[in-house]
Amino acid sequence: MEKLLYLDNAATTKTAPEVLEAMIPYFTECYGNPSSVYGFAAKNKDAITRQRETIAKVLGANANEIYFTAGGSEADNWALKATAEAYQDKGKHIITTKIEHHAILHTGEYLEKKGFEITYLEVDENGMVRLEDLKAAIRPDTILISVMYANNEIGTIEPIKEIGSIAKEHGILFHTDAVQAFGQVPINVDECNIDMLSASGHKLNGPKGIGFLYIRKGVKIRSFVHGGAQERRRRAGTENVPGIIGLGTAVERAVRTMEERTKKEIELRDYLIGRVLEEIPYTKLNGDPKKRLPNNANFSFRFVEGESLLIMLDMKGICASSGSACTSGSLDPSHVLLAIGLPHEIAHGSLRITLNEEFEKEDMDYVVDTLKEIVANLRNMSPLYEDFVKKQK
Fold first, then answer.
1. How far apart, in Å, are the Cα atoms of 349 and each of 13, 234, 333, 356?
2. Which of 30, 192, 319, 326 is catalytic?
3. Is the pTM higher than 0.90?
4. CB neighbours (10 Å) of residue 335?
5. How far is Cα 225 from Cα 209, in angstroms, rounded to an integer?
6. Measured in Å, how far apart are the chain's first and last C-alpha atoms?
7. pLDDT tens per residue across span 212-241
8. How far apart are CA 234 and CA 224, in angstroms?
9. What DSSP element (H or E) covers 242?
10. Active site residue 192
């Protein structure tokens, strides 16, 4: 293998050197338990506070509204389950979408078994929530709206500010899963009327196993993990100090580099998309062509099976995916692609490419040239493609 191109940055990212460097002392030197009273441990409590303040500033929030978790999935579970428990006297209706991450969808299924009613909104062909559908779904007993900031598979950025305004107007809590968007696009919780927001460290060059849930002051959701008094009695367990330091450092880095980094990613993304659509026939770009994450390109290739495509790309040193890493191993096509109206046979031939700022134009050329060769080879082995070509003639 001549080269390795890691093009699956939506699944996880490489921990940045400065993040790792910041974390190391908290494994070997500053290892005290932050809940202890002596000075050696109190320094760690102060360090956690500084990271909380860093994250809060980025969101336009207050430090006491940031609660550290083990990642985005825990934050999503906490937001939905604890809200359902706390506000069930007001109502048992929750609104979300059909294209959410499974951390939301499976939590919704769990709550349905507990007597809650979940409305799963349809989306348009680009994966965009229709605001009129949202308004029509609201009922007197609706207690929560949860819509992801940007889709993890097709990259579409949702109209979060408008959704937040609708939620506020109706006195309904609004949660957004911002795991893919945080660090990629600017987010202000007040401007968007966001009451809760989930994020994860390993999506922005931070460590795995650490994330946070923003909970607006006044939102009455309760503890999710019971035990000690950590996280202001809302999330028990000894704090993951190295992880928190890594997360705060990664957030600081993401904000500092965002403008230049995303500008480069957009240029490379659009160059890649342009070449693929122009040079590989019977190919569709999934997701909104403009309102999408800077680093995301998602394609469907007709007459191609996605798993075979990924295996052959891997043999050429290209790491990509067909959708969410959390559903790898599933034989079913992506629920997101089905929700935007793709038939099963086309949804099965999908490819998600997610970039980082380290790539150059020649890397994109290698990807496209390799894709062209592989897609052509796979189609030549497909009887469906052969029949299609004959009919075209």
1. 24, 43, 9, 24
2. 326
3. yes
4. 18
5. 16
6. 39
7. 999 999 999 888 899 998 998 899 899 999
8. 7
9. helix 241-279
10. no
